[in-house]
Amino acid sequence: MRFTQRFWAHRWSKTEPMSSRPWLLLPIETKHREFYGKILLSLAAAERGFEVLLGEQNAMLSQLDNLPQGIYLDKSVGRTKTKYFKRLDARGSRIVAWCEEGLVYRDRDAYLHERVSNASLALANRFFAWGDVQANDIHKQAPEADAKVRITGNPRFDMLRPEFRSVFTPAADKIRQCYGPYILINSNFSRYNHFMGYDFWIEALKQRGTITNDEQLAFYYRWRDFLGKVFHGFIRVMPALSSAFPDRMLLVRPHPSEDHATWFRETAALNNVTVVHEDSAIPWIAGADAVIHNSCTTGLEAYLLGIPVAAFRPAVDETFDSYLPNAVSHEAVDGEGLIETLRELLAGTATPPPSAQSEVNRYVAALDGSLAADRVADALIEISLRCELQKMGPIRRARIARENTVSALKPMLRRIRRSHKATSYAKQKFPGIELSEVEHAINQLRDASGRFAGITSTRSPFRHCFRICKT
Question: Do domains 3-158+365-470 and 168-356 have the same CATH topology?
Answer without folding.
Answer: yes
